[in-house]
Amino acid sequence: MFRYIRELEFQTICNYIKEESSVLDLGCGDCELLHRLIKNKNIKAQGIEIDEKEIYKCVQKGVSVLHEDIEYGLSEYKDKSFDYIVLQQSLSEVVRQPEKVIQEALRVGKKVIISFSNFAHYRARLQIFLKGKTPVTPSLPYSWYDTPNLHFLSLSDFIEYCKERKINIEKTTYLGIKRKAYLFPNVFALVGIFMISQN
Fold first, then answer.
1. Going by fewer Cβ within 10 Å, which terminus of the chain is more open, N or C?
2. Which of 15, 51, 50 is closest to 33 using CA atoms?
3. What is the pLDDT along the chain (199 residues), one digit of tens a residue?
């Protein structure tokens, strides 16, 4: 199930990005997303990753990647130097200071694509309410002691954050268990994908 959702997430992000664009992926992992975009959309790709093992995988795929901490790695880039900045699950999993990273991403990128697991999914709510335990769901498949997540946020949390800071939400896609979630996404979506921008 987890792989299926990740595949839908990859496909959606790829659909958001125009051909021959410049893309910077923050916390790019093994560069699977960038590799697909290079192959299918002829993009100019750059990744930033802190894990050396993941960097080796990127290099094997022929993707340019910098060994940096994404919280500090954007200061060298000029304003709007990339068409797209991508934070695929990075915001909740590796970023300690989300406010800082989002603002820097909006400065460096014309558009920013952010995806994250929805902590307010009904399965998570039920596990907290009925069992009184940290939830485990298809999009949050880890126990409390081995989770990569640093921040647990909901779709509504992120929408409210953008509204308060006058950040434009240009596109949204909500992924359920087997398909896109349209009805009450904050309850039924496992993953939210947002494309945002700021004038």
1. C
2. 15
3. 467 788 999 999 999 999 999 999 999 999 999 999 999 999 999 999 999 999 999 999 999 999 998 888 788 899 999 999 999 988 766 667 888 899 999 999 999 999 998 886 666 665 555 566 555 666 555 554 555 555 578 899 999 999 999 999 999 999 987 788 888 888 888 899 999 999 7
Place of tokens 């700021």: 198
Select from 110, 114, 107, 74 the least CA-distant residue to 93. 114
Dihedral, CA of residue 145, residue 146, residue 152 and residue 154, to nearest 10:
-120
pTM: 0.86
132: exposed, middle or buried (Cβ count in 10 Å: 0-12, 13-18, 19+): exposed
Query: Are 12 and 75 contacting, i.e. CB atoms less than 8 angstroms apart?
Result: no
Could you state, in order of their start, the residue ranges of all structural domains in the chain?
Answer: 2-118+151-197
